[in-house]
Give the backbone structure.
Amino acid sequence: MIKIIFCDLDDTLLTPITKEIKNEDIESINHWIKSGNLFVIATARHHSFLNNITNNKYHFDFDCVGWNGAEIYYQSKVTEISPFKKPQFLCLYENMKEYKKYIKVTNEKNEYIYENQDSYAKEIFIKESSQLKNVKLHDYLKYSDLSITHVNYIFPNKQLHLKFHEDYNEKMINFDDYNCRVTSDLSYDITVKKASKEEGIKRYLKLVKIQEDQIATIGDSLNDIGMFKLAKQSFCIENGNKEAKKIAKYTVKSVSEAISILERINKYGR
């Protein structure tokens, strides 16, 4: 019997451009929850990004495994957060300094900090509300006490993306404090070692006292493969990453289709 769905956010629950939830997905989620089950978000984002959307328009306040497992948001409050220690982040920052133009870091208040005001990364995220304007990352590291919880490197082309991967593996090979995940053909997410979606899910399950064989996961990207492997039932959105689709048990068109399959499995056992 599946009791919890852990669902990715961008391009899975939220539509790619408008960042909205489809009406049929809303209806399916409501039915799933009213049947006594849980629906939890597992995302590389902070819980406040989700709730800015859902509270204002859809009246949901989802629990959330945020920042790829670095944050657990449970019953409307953050119960766990796993930031970088400052020496940890400085080691990463200095070793990969060639790529400072492409870095976005997020602190524990979900504020974005960039290397420079004209950085490539800032141009990508310029339309998002969570930003620290006019604060360079170099200065932030000197004067702020707010911990960094999430690092994102995003690149304009696959060649630079691959070069970063090669350099990271060479320069950071002796450091075991980081969890570096490919999130797309153009980006990487880096958190502390214990922060991944699958590890965050395990910690959440301890809070609600539910077993791993009672969960399902829905996602679309390389970053979701770990939680696909963890879950008894896993679903990849059909326009998702081809490697992720190979790992997931099912390929579906939408969250509502995945929920329909899970309701059938819960009722008939298959």
Notes: Residues 192 and 261 are 35 Å apart (CA to CA).
